[in-house]
Design goal:
alpha/beta, globular, about 240 residues
Length: about 240
């Protein structure tokens, strides 16, 4: 299999690239600065580094990037700086998802391409009736209005959920929702659920980035895992949370 990873130089994206390579997959990684990837990855024979900004790439270039890929994974996110949070582009993730989906559709494929999006437990799956307290709804509403990346996360997931939907012939998707992210050196036990089992605002759990990467790689590589979660927005927590 060949997978395209966008946001590959980020804290989780690097780990996803490593997870996929360790499983014998071929990976195309889109990065602005290749030097942000570890040398062990850059020297890997199955890694192709594409130095580009996803927002600046033309539609023709994106179609070429996804050509021949069995899966597309997005670990894109906004930098946690004032410019990254409140500057342009405000819809970095949503625009990238939309354009990548269009790029996939522009290439004839024999089987649907898997699209895996990293998102957040603070975003609800509106295909389900997920229990959200009144106070959490108020906080999420304020975040939606005052913190552009949160609205971007919501709209990106909603694009896959409502525009691509459950019956698209070219794309199948899953949205991975971790809770509060932590850095750990190794994969540990974790659990996936269809919906949050706790409040992402008032009783947040923990999810290590390496566990997120491991689960995303499972979705891409393991057809049984994919069949279980495609068209859904699984929430993952480290064991004990």
């Amino acid at each position: 299999m060949t997978s395209l990873v966008v946001g590959a130089s980020g804290a989780t994206g690097r780990l996803l690239v490593e997870q996929l390579l360790d499983r014998g997959q071929r990976v195309k990684a889109i990065v602005r600065s290749p030097d942000k990837l570890p040398r062990t990855l850059l020297d890997h024979q199955h890694l192709t580094v594409i130095q580009a900004g996803i927002a600046e790439a033309s539609d023709t270039e994106l179609a070429e990037y996804v050509k021949g890929c069995d899966a597309v994974a997005s670990c894109l996110g906004h930098n946690l700086t004032l410019k990254g949070i409140y500057g342009q582009p405000r819809r970095l993730v949503t625009d990238a998802i939309r354009r990548l989906c269009n790029a996939v559709k522009s290439n004839a494929t024999e089987r649907p391409v898997k699209f895996v999006l990293m998102n957040t437990a603070g975003n609800s799956n509106r295909d389900l009736v997920e229990p959200v307290s009144f106070h959490q709804k108020c906080v999420i509403g304020m975040l939606r209005l005052s913190v552009p990346p949160h609205a971007d996360n919501e709209e990106a997931a909603d694009y896959l959920r409502t525009v691509i939907g459950q019956t698209d012939q070219a794309i199948e998707w899953a949205v991975v929702r971790p809770d509060s992210l932590t850095d750990e050196s190794a994969v540990s036990e974790y659990h996936a659920y269809p919906s949050p089992t706790r409040s992402a605002i008032f009783n947040a759990g923990k999810t290590s980035r390496i566990n997120v990467a491991h689960f995303m790689a499972d979705l891409i590589v393991d057809d049984d895992v994919w069949t279980r979660w495609k068209g859904q927005m699984p929430v993952i927590y480290n064991a004990g949370y």
